[in-house]
Design a protein that fits this description.
Blueprint: H1 12-16, H2 18-24, H3 31-38, E1 51-52, E2 60-61, H4 77-111, H5 123-132, H6 141-157, H7 171-180, H8 187-197, H9 206-236, E3 242-246, E4 256-262, H10 265-275, H11 278-286, E5 292-297, H12 298-308, E6 312-314, H13 319-324, E7 328-333, H14 341-346, E8 352-355, E9 366-367, H15 375-389, E10 405-409, H16 413-420, H17 429-436, E11 442-446, H18 458-468, E12 471-476, H19 477-485, H20 499-508, E13 513-517, H21 522-535, E14 547-551, H22 557-569, E15 573-575, H23 585-599, E16 603-605, H24 609-627
Parallel strand pairs: 4-5, 4-7, 5-6, 7-8, 8-9, 11-12, 11-14, 12-13, 14-15, 15-16
Antiparallel strand pairs: 1-2, 3-10
Helix pairs in contact: 4-6, 4-8, 4-9, 4-22, 4-23, 5-6, 5-9, 8-9, 9-21, 9-22, 10-15, 16-21, 18-24
Bound molecules: Fe(4)-Ni(1)-S(4) cluster, oxidized.
């Protein structure tokens, strides 16, 4: 079949900044063109989860129901698909959790006085976390913070018992998990066990594998990710609503542009502090710039957008294009979702791609190791490199597109509590009341990546459809950036909401789509949902709520881990445009149907925005009916 992208610029991803995309075409190969060259179909052998490569008798191509096309060892398609699914969950969990551990280490250094650059910014949250660790949370802050640091690090290597934050889930959910034997012990232990189970010749029952994948995923959602979010909030501040700007138009012609890309906010926070240092500003001025302009990409961007209002230059699919503006002096990258090609694109300009993590180097990039005990010092080194590149900027190559969009971000669960819950009652009760009386039909989360293989604007179209149906939408990750670009993260976008949702939004002055942060911040959604259960009137467990999640353009393995912990927690998740196990009907049916009986929530797949919307609206209506509030 002919590749679908015949014309150069047909895909929605190239259209985001088409003018920039056109300038780089023919110069360096970029992702949309690679899609074009390869044809629009990914590897047919591997797609759908039934390519088995866990041993050297294969790789085996397995076809469901065909005896001769089982693995050499006899593995069925269901086993292989479940095993691959489990491995994706383990990889995703490891990524979020190693990020969490990294922050726990920064936290440890900070509270033990080994770095002076950071401090405790949210004491209330520190005490809350201490409470869940079973500590005497009324102790003086300094002493308590040290104990929290040790406890946080121990959550990763814990061998027995339960992760501390499991206790934050609704009582009924905890009981269900205990009965099913899926309560995670230590984060690392669950990841290791998942990898062990899925090596050749261990767990070979798809049901057992898939159930175990939930235990691993829960270690992400209620463990690694939640620790990352909470410790980052304690250290860098819990987000509050703020105004900011997104899209490539945030780059500045007269400043040293530094993009921060990846996931961990530590480096970006240090860069933000260093960029305000008078000495650094002076150095920038010396080379003819007005100062340093920081802009985010991917989830590092979401982290500093949420807490500091630092603009976002782009989502995952815009990373190469940010460099193709010719206006970026340095792209500083930490971990995850950094395309190797950024180094190649940068080499066509004066731009430095600077890796800073000791876990992630890229061929062709510059490596400046980050000293976690002196973050701001390291940040200054990075900025000096960027400043040194400014005079080398080729004005003929510079093109900053005019596109930018105003957004309101910073909706931590605490903030939502305050805004939608009412200033004096600090509970989700008023939100629940609006759901019960039908003004708000339900809540939907649109999360996860954007993906060069998806040619439509699924995120924004879906968000518009949901809010028009009076569903309050929360977003994280690159889905948030993608929806932000379309203007849905501003209070004015309330005009696109259905009448009754609009009334509620206008009364509190908030946008119809609430930006809750980065991918690890999906843990905020778990807590928000739990608070909705606790506020009463909407059932006793997460699977009772008229709430649903989706990742319409998932790309990273991390998205699979996230989806699986939501399903395991009782929230239905719709994935698209394809599903990782779909070549095994048996394994897929188990996730799509049996999981509903086991966890109270199924996985679902949808192909395009209207399919997503229909499924999500129907599921929310079904929950309302079960609750008896469908009148
Ligand atoms: Ni963690 S995981 S592309 S940056 S959301 Fe963006 Fe978000 Fe997916 Fe990566």
């Amino acid at each position: 079949m002919e590749p679908r992208l015949k014309a150069k610029n047909e895909c929605s991803k190239c259209m985001i900044n088409q003018d920039v995309f056109e300038r780089i075409q023919g110069k360096v190969l970029t992702a949309p063109e690679r899609v074009n060259k390869r044809g629009t179909k990914p590897c047919l052998f591997g797609k759908g989860g039934t390519c088995c490569h866990v041993c050297n008798m294969g790789p085996c191509q397995i076809v469901e129901g065909v005896e001769e096309l089982r693995g050499i060892c006899g593995a069925t398609a269901a086993t292989v698909a479940a095993r691959n699914f489990g491995r994706m969950v383990a990889a995703g969990t490891s990524a979020h959790s190693d990020h969490g551990r990294g922050i726990a280490e920064v936290f440890y250094h900070t509270v033990h006085g080994e770095t002076e650059d950071f401090e405790i910014k949210d004491e209330k949250k520190l005490r809350m976390v201490a409470y869940y660790f079973g500590l005497d949370y009324k102790k003086p802050v300094k002493e308590l913070a040290k104990e929290v640091a040790v406890n946080a690090l121990e959550e990763f290597g814990k061998q027995h018992g339960e992760l501390a934050f499991i206790k934050r889930a609704p009582e009924k959910r905890q009981q269900r998990w205990r009965e099913l034997g899926v309560v995670p012990r230590g984060v690392d232990r669950e990841v290791v066990e998942m990898l062990h189970r899925t090596t050749v010749g261990v767990d070979q029952d798809y049901r057992s594998l898939l159930k175990a994948s939930v235990r691993c995923a829960l270690a992400d959602g209620w463990g690694g990710s939640m620790l990352a979010t909470e410790l980052q909030d304690i250290l860098f501040g819990t987000p509050q609503p703020l105004r900011a700007v997104v899209n490539l138009g945030v780059l500045k012609e007269d400043m040293v542009n530094v993009t921060v890309h990846g996931h961990e906010p530590e480096v970006a926070e240090a860069l933000a502090i260093a960029a305000q240092d008078p000495e650094i500003i002076k150095e920038a001025e010396k080379v003819g710039a007005k100062g340093i302009n920081l802009a985010g990409i991917c989830c590092t961007g979401n982290e500093v957008l949420m807490r500091r209002g630092i603009p976002i230059a782009g989502s995952f699919v815009q990373q190469e294009l940010a460099l193709a503006t010719g206006a970026v002096e340095a792209m500083v990258v930490d971990v995850q979702c950094i395309m190797q090609n950024v180094a190649t694109v940068a080499s066509a300009y004066h731009t430095a791609v600077i890796t800073v993590s000791d876990k992630a180097e890229i061929e062709g990039a510059m490596h400046i190791p980050f000293d976690h005990k002196h973050p701001v010092e390291s940040a200054k080194k990075v900025l000096r490199e960027a400043i040194s590149r400014f005079p080398k900027r080729d004005k003929n190559l510079v093109y900053i597109p005019p596109n930018k969009m105003d957004v309101v971000a910073g909706f931590s669960h605490e903030t939502i509590l305050y805004i939608l819950g009412g200033r004096f009652r600090a509970s989700y009760k008023p939100l629940n009341e609006n759901i019960i009386n039908g003004r708000i039909l339900g809540v939907a989360a649109i999360v996860g990546c954007d993906n060069f293989r998806v040619f439509e604007k699924t995120h924004a179209e879906l968000a518009k459809e949901l809010i028009a149906n009076n569903i309050l939408v929360v977003v994280t990750g690159c889905a948030a950036t993608s929806i932000a670009r379309e203007g849905l993260l501003s209070p004015e976008a309330a005009s696109l909401a259905g009448d009754s949702l609009r009334e509620v939004l206008e009364a509190v002055g908030c946008p119809p789509v609430l930006h809750m942060g980065s991918c690890v911040d999906n843990s905020r959604i778990l807590i928000a949902l739990t608070e909705m259960v606790n506020a009463g009137g909407l059932g006793e467990d997460l699977d009772d709520l008229p709430a649903i999640g989706c990742a319409p353009e998932w790309m990273s393995e991390k998205a699979v881990a996230i989806g699986n912990y939501f399903v395991g927690s009782g929230a239905c998740v719709v994935f698209g445009p394809n599903f990782p196990t779909e070549k095994s009907q048996i394994a897929t049916d188990y996730l799509f149907h049996e999981f509903y009986h086991i966890f109270g929530a199924p996985w679902v797949v949808a192909r395009n925005a209207s399919e997503f919307a229909n499924i999500m609206i129907d599921k929310i209506k079904e929950k309302r009916k079960n609750l008896g509030i469908d009148k």
